[in-house]
Amino acid sequence: MNTVNPKDIADDAVVLDVREQDEYDAGHAPRAIHIPLGDLPNRLNELPEVDGDLPVVCRSGARSGRAVEWLTGQGRAVANVEGGMKQWNAEGKTIVSDSGDAAII
Questions:
Q1: Is the pTM higher than 0.85?
Q2: HSE on the CB side for 74, CA within 13 Å?
Q3: What are the Cα distances from residue 78, in Å, to 32, 61, 67, 68?
Q4: Among 58, 67, 68, 79, which one carries the catalytic annotation?
Q5: SMART domains annotated for this entry (predicted)?
Q6: CA nearest neighbour of 36 among 59, 53, 13
Q7: Which CATH superfamily is domain 3-90 in?
Q8: Looking at the DSSP assignment, which residues form a beta bridge with residue 81?
């Protein structure tokens, strides 16, 4: 499985966030595309085209790992974000919330 460390992801990169709505609303990467894991099969056509592997993130890396395995089987170029949003936060990467409240992970 392809993996990528959050510190190696550009601050303006598009990432696929597969967490649930409440988790995403609380805080996410600035250019995240939100498609919950369970919705992926029906929303595959919504995945953006990016140069290289599309980073896939969840809270800790487990759900995104499952998403990466499935998406790879669908012929998609993806990489699991190591440690998920927990590691993203620990690396000091930008996190935003749609509500304007302080982002939390």
A1: yes
A2: 15
A3: 14, 13, 9, 6
A4: 58
A5: RHOD
A6: 59
A7: Rhodanese-like domain (3.40.250.10)
A8: 4
Residue 61: strand pairing partners: none
| Contact in structure between 56 and 71 (CB atoms under 8 Å) | yes
Q: Is 39 part of the annotated catalytic residue set?
A: no
Q: Find tokens 């995240």 and name the residue.
A: 32
- pLDDT tens for the 105 residues of the chain, in order: 899 999 999 989 999 999 999 999 999 999 999 999 999 999 999 999 899 999 999 999 999 999 999 999 999 999 999 999 999 999 999 999 987 777 888
